[in-house]
Amino acid sequence: MIHPALLFAVAFSVGGLLKLVVFLAVLGALIVFHEFGHLVMAKRNGVTVTDFAIGFGPTIFAVNRGGTRYSVNLLPLGGYCKMVGEDEPDSGIADPGNFAHKPLAARLAIIAAGPIFNFILAAIIFAVIGVAIGLPTGNTTVVAEVQPGSPAASAGLVSNDQIIALDGQPVRSGQDMIDYIHARPNKTIAVGVRHAGAIEHLRIRTRPQLLDGKTVGVFGFVPLPALAHASFLSGAAWGFSMVYDTIVLQVVGLYEAISHHDASAVSGPVGIARVVGQAESLGAFWVLRIAGMLSVVLGIFNLLPLPALDGGRIAFLFVELLRGRPVSPEKEGLVHLTGFAVLALLFVFITYHDVVQWINGKGGL
């Protein structure tokens, strides 16, 4: 669990109250849905769930239903699902509602339900994007993001600017704009820009970059996508496709980060807060898209076979399957405690790396 004070500090530091609200809302919703997955599967398997909480700290509202206390707490920083027998030592007394007394398959389903629900939520979010907002069909001429240190940034181009002319010629489409810039590596282009309702004229020298084996010119910005509403089936298909693509992208990225010892491929809370904050300024499409991708990332991260994570608990279940008996709760608890300490150190390292990247003006969407 990330310390609440750090989350507040991070969110405030990256751009004010609105970004704080968006950041906490996105992160909190993803974690609560993850815990909701554990709750649903625990209930289906007859495990006694004593507490299901949204947020931490002082309780604002609570109600008891079916032996479970459901509460909404003051600090909206995620939530938790507390089950009988999940962490405490086995009393040895037969209890049909005790997590530890359930068959291995039931325990596996309960633990895996959290990450699986994150994948399901991501698919739903992506489907909603397609149906309610629209699927990307190309690019507009409006600037979504300017990369720090790029020619566009040096010239003064900013988010929400619209490029209306290149070398005096009107820009008719996003693709025409991209083709014109790509065709002119290391060339200075006169750019007509609509900024806050006024027309401005900039001169931007393209930066050469390899693209599909060919040198092209780039300004260093990302255009807003053109969107078209999709049918329910098309939106659902795109949703599952996006989940699959994001899983592959994250797994490959994680492998490369580990194999090449490249910390720049990993983002912590500062990096995540920056991305969510930038997305908030670009509208609902980007906020939801980032939320969907973060939900997938949260699911993948929790499936890693590391102590203190769902994946670590699943690993102990496979050890139990091979040995024919479970690892003693004391030994497993010690491993999870050690793993939590290691994850805390990793969290500090990644956060430090995020801050350095931020200070150096690197990173972004």
Features:
365 residues, alpha+beta, Pdz3 Domain, four-stranded antiparallel β-sheet, two-stranded antiparallel sheet, elongated, disordered N terminus, disordered C terminus
Helix content: 40-55%
Q: Detail the poorly predicted runs.
A: 1-16, 361-365
Characterize the largest beta sheet: strand count, sense, and whether it forms a barrel: 4 strands, antiparallel
Overall spatial form: elongated
| Mean pLDDT over the full residue set | 82
N to C succession of SSEs: HHEEHEHEEHEEEEEHHHHH
The Rg value, from CA coordinates, equals 24 Å
Widest β-sheet, arrangement of strands: 5-4-6-7
Distance between the ends: 25 Å
- The number of E-state strands comes to 10
Structure classification: alpha+beta
Proportion of residues in extended strands: 15-25%
Structurally, how many domains make up the residues? 2
Number of helices: 10
Task: Summarize the topology.
Blueprint: H1 4-13, H2 16-44, E1 49-65, E2 68-83, H3 104-133, E3 135-146, H4 151-155, E4 162-166, E5 169-170, H5 174-182, E6 188-195, E7 198-205, E8 207-211, E9 214-218, E10 221-228, H6 232-259, H7 269-282, H8 284-303, H9 310-323, H10 329-359
Antiparallel strand pairs: 1-2, 3-10, 4-5, 4-6, 6-7, 8-9
Helix pairs in contact: 1-2, 2-3, 2-7, 2-8, 3-6, 3-8, 3-9, 6-8, 7-8
Protein architecture, described:
- This protein has helices spanning about 5-15, 15-45, 105-135, 150-155, 175-180, 230-260, 270-280, 285-305, 310-325, 330-360; strands at about 50-65, 70-85, 135-145, 160-165, 170, 190-195, 200-205, 205-210, 215-220, 220-230.
- It has about 375 residues and is α+β, with helices and mostly antiparallel strands.
- Strand 8 and strand 9 form a beta hairpin.
- Helix 3 (about 105-135) packs across helix 6 (about 230-260), helix 3 packs antiparallel against helix 8 and helix 7 runs antiparallel to helix 8.
- The longest helix is centred in the C-terminal third of the chain and has 31 residues, at about 330-360.
- The model is unreliable at about 1-15 and about 360-365 (pLDDT under 50).
